[in-house]
Amino acid sequence: MTHLVCCVSAEEERRVRANDREYNEKFQYVYFSFLILQSNCIMTSKYNIITFLPVNLFEQFQEVANTYFLFLLILQLIPQISSLSWFTTIVPLALVLSITAVKDATDDYFRHKSDNQVNNRQSQVLIRGSLQNEKWMNVRVGDIIKLENNQFVAADLLLLSSTEPHGLCYIETAELDGETNMKVRQSVSVTSELGDPNNLASFDGEVVCEPPNNKLDRFSGTLYWREKKYSLTNQNMLLRGCVLRNTEACYGLVIFAGPDTKLMQNSGRTKFKRTSIDRLMNTLVLWIFGFLVCMGMILAVGNAGWEKEVGSLFQSYLAWDTPVNNFLFSAFLSFWSYVIILNTVVPISLYVSVEVIRLGHSYFINWDQQMFCSQCNTAAEARTTTLNEELGQVEYIFSDKTGTLTQNIMTFNKCSINGQSYGKDTHTTCTHWKLSQRLDFTPFNPLADPDFCFYDDKLCKTQIMTSKLNICSFVMLVYKAQSPDEGALVTAARNFGFVFRSRTPGTITTTEMGRTVTYSLLAILDFNNIRKRMSVIVRNPEGRIRLYCKGADTVLLERLHPCNQEVMSITSDHLNEYATDGLRTLALAYRDLSEDEWEAWSESHRFADKATDCREDRLAAAYEEIEQNMMLLGATAIEDKLQEGVPETIAVLSLANIKIWVLTGDKQETAVNIGYSCKMLTDDMTEVFIISGHTVQSVRQELRSVWLCAHCTRLYTAHALEADMEAEFVSTACACKAVICCRVTPLQKAQVVELIKKHKKAVTLAIGDGANDISMIKSAHIGVGISGQEGIQAVLASDYSFSQFRFLQRLLLVHGRWSYLRMCRFLCYFFYKNFAFTMVHFWFGFFCGFSAQTVYDQYFITLFNIVYTSLPVLAMGIFDQDVPDHRSLEYPKLYEPGQLNLLFNKREFFICIAQGIYTSVVLFFVPYAVLSNATQSNGVPLADYQTFAVTTATALVIVVSVQIVLDTGFWTVFNHVFVWGSLGSYFIIMFALHSQTLFRIFPNQFHFCPEHIIAASRVVNDCTGNSNMHSSSFGVPLPQAGPQTSALRHGEKTHKNTAFLTLMSPSSSLQHALQSF
Predict the structure, then answer these.
(1) How far, CA to CA in Å, does 941 sit from each of 91, 242, 944, 946?
(2) C-alpha span between 495 and 478 (Å, rounded)
């Protein structure tokens, strides 16, 4: 449902005054929902009771197919052109619309239920000096809210105070950015002491800040209070969707509410994805419609010729109806009549059947116990029902590394300090390390983690004073432990005797070899993806000021003092060794600052922090100024082990001719080692090409040099993606068996995927586990989320999700291949049976004077696609298999037909319709040849309209049933019940519709009564004096009483039905005889 926004013009800035609803309402930060004024109401639902029917129908008729069938229905309501009753179209159309409406209503009901659950959560709001319970939906901008531990944040709040010292609080942001680790937020110092509701009730500060936006990591604003102003940043904000952790309580001022919150601003609609089969079907449907128009024009031309040459002979007793006054207008009406009759070449049931089949395939994925992870109690989930067959056509897989190929469970493995490497040497024999014992830290460190493993005792034997500074720096740099990497470093420092104990806004307390030391925290230089480093500036108890920096070696080593050349060279070798072992590396450095340097920089930093324009750029420049001429401390190496089954999965997928690209932010050596570990790269690959140019020209030159060596396997490590090198990049990379792009940002991941989609026209799949993979997941044709250590953000953005990378081979090679196979067989059979069904009408047109008379009765036309043939083809589309699942995994080459699109393409489509047309020829002309001159033993003609119609319809049902029996490769109970049950239902319904009982009860609806037909035949024969007349013109419709409807079926008009008298004598006695009858 769309919100009615009171404020018409876009905000340029937001002004919020605490505890003053009247002031804030002037800016109209509220919304109307059901004519009720609400500020914090969230509505993700689309409909309500009043709007559901009109809005849902409007949306459904946005589909071309639905609009097309509505157009046919309107045509059928025009008696001059319709030879079919309106219910032949409205019944299937209403069924389709109803099924879709029920599905949409069910989905929206759950959205309403979720919205109501969220909107009716209770929150403590400070109103008139006291805390009162209010529903979330009634919270207003400017209200002060109290949050308690483990509560969700109700709106975007400015943190005012907390029960923790110095206004600190801890939050979990998994719903925002997918990160499960806790983050620290801190109130402005001037409000941190307003913890009492009485003090907060008198708080009347005013906040001027940026308008609502979707930037989760940025906030810029100013607090004006008591004639002073205070700069506000993202560190002062608690965003909706966060959870308060490890904090007894805190208070916050509502800045953004409801749809204005950053969570809702980021909840835009995901791009709708369509499969290649969908796109092909759209093209084929247009072709079929063109074919339908051509058939209609051919028959209309025939009608014009017949009416001019033959029909004019009957004008004396079968005149044209008004407004028909010439043969051309009769042909025009005949064209639209045939459009109605022949529309079943594309029946509406096709679209319903496709959705039902896809839904069934999705449930099979959800129910697959072999894709269920018992360790984390997580099942595979198909989060969409529209892409299942696309899983059987994937050619390129783009995978994240950390948490996707690896476990994202970090352990400290090695480190380099002052040019000396510590940790297990992977090149040492295993026997030597078996003899080594795991170090026991408890004798000198009672706070050691018992699960920590380290085998190199050289680090413990190093003089404490030499390593103290270096190891202590770990704690200084990672005390927040905001990622698994930092958690591993904190654990290592803890075991070596340097334990992080507590933090306040201005201090950090550690225990160093049993001695408590408190550092003054002067500044934090935050990490971001551009800086790729973070720093802290602290003052130790002796008064010395020092900056500690950790980050990627590529950005940190270039900021070292020139005197570090020797140790930098040694440390760089260690970093390369660690990366070769597949370890994640970080470099560490420090810089001593004098008081004057600190004071000068502090002033420039304070100025940049308070800037109202270009604040982020000013801060980045200030950080860059101080992070220079640093001294190298060393480096760390963290191990992130591969997940179970990753090498085997990649090997099997490679045999299926699926190309796997790894897109990672790690350094080149780490990426190469992981490539070998997971068997993307193998020893039998003759060449590995590394392209690492830093300029456009150097990268272009290296790309071109690769092509000089043919038939080689190459590795491409991308450092830049330039627009003018797209073609060279794609052509080179796609010639490789394995591609690894390292040092890539989230945006570059998406760019790589888009390049392959643009230039190769291949089906792509992206798989990742973190918030940094979302852009890649949304860009690919198919997005897969791993529910791992980095939250569920990637899962929420994905089309499919599971917990282990190894499940990908079953998703593609089993479920994907089966879905593609089933959908292709379904479509081939569906087009075949409908052409066989519809083309009989086309051939009949040449024998009924092109009068748009149907071969089958209208009940058969209505029921053919929704009763007689719907369930067997659904059973085949849902349950069919060519080989069991284990054979699909044993023989990955079975996957290739989907990649080459062999099972359903334009060629296969033309083969199907050719088979259908051939079947229609046999179904029409064989009964015609047999019945046209046949007589009974008593001389009565055997042929009549009913006999021919029933014979043709019965043959059609039997033939298409036999065809699906031949096409079905895997029989289940459902297949048997549906095939034989549908065949049996045809005969039961046919006998019922042609019974004398129904004719006597509803004579105007059921014309086919044997006694009635025999009597009519005798009257016609007597009137014409031709005992063989009926056999030579068996298309004569059932007679009805009345001068204007003689020789007509119920509801048909004379201008069309003169055609049925083609071979009869134009005698006026016929009309009188029929009238008397």
Answers:
(1) 37, 84, 8, 13
(2) 15
Asked whether residue 850 falls in the same domain as residue 871, the answer is yes
Confidence at residue 697, expressed as pLDDT on a 0 to 100 scale: 61
End position of a domain, from candidates 233, 266, 299: 266
Bind-site residues for Mg(2+): 400, 402, 769, 773
Report pLDDT digits (tens) over 329-375: 888 888 988 888 888 887 777 877 888 899 899 999 999 999 998 88
Kindly report the pTM of this predicted structure. 0.72
174-200: per-residue pLDDT in tens? 666 655 567 788 898 889 888 788 889
Mean pLDDT along residues 669-679:
74
How many domains in the chain? 5
CA distances for 98 relative to 91, 106, 108, 352, 872, angstroms: 10, 12, 15, 11, 22
Same domain, 860 and 898: yes
pLDDT surpasses 70 at 743: yes
Annotated binding site for ATP: 400-402, 486, 527, 550, 584, 664-666, 743, 749, 772-773
Q: What are phi and psi of 411, to 5 degrees?
A: -135, 140
Out of 115, 156, 400, 456, the active site residue is 400
Same domain, 107 and 162: no
What is the average pLDDT across 51-71? 81
Q: What is the average pLDDT across 121-127?
A: 89
Q: Is 400 a catalytic residue?
A: yes
Statement to judge: residues 91 and 231 lie in one domain:
no
Q: What is the pLDDT of residue 127?
A: 87
The verdict on 679 and 629 lying in the same domain is: no
pLDDT, position 88: 65
Boundary of a domain, candidates 582, 616, 641: 641
Contacts 24+ apart (CB under 8 A), 56-61: 56/100, 56/101, 56/104, 56/105, 57/97, 57/101, 59/104, 60/97, 60/100, 60/101
* Cα distances (angstroms) measured from residue 715 to each of 406, 668, 737, 741, 962: 20, 11, 8, 9, 53
157: which 2 tokens? 């709040």
The answer on 636 and 649 residing in a single domain is: no
Q: Taking 70 as the threshold, does the pLDDT of residue 547 lie above it? A: yes
Q: What is the CATH number of the domain that holds 161?
A: 2.70.150.10
Distance of CA 561 to CAs 590, 622, 629, 985, Å? 10, 18, 4, 88
Tens-digit pLDDT profile for residues 523-537? 888 776 677 788 889
Contacts of range 910-914, beta carbons closer than 8 Å, 24 or more positions apart:
912/828, 912/829, 912/831, 912/832, 912/835, 913/831, 913/832, 913/835
Confidence check: pLDDT of 661 > 60: yes
Binding-site positions read 400-402, 486, 527, 550, 584, 664-666, 743, 749, 769, 772-773
Could you tell me the residue range of the domain that residue 794 belongs to?
372-405+642-813
Please count the other Cβ atoms lying within 10 Å of the Cβ belonging to residue 565.
Answer: 11
Q: Do residues 503 and 614 both lie within one domain?
A: yes
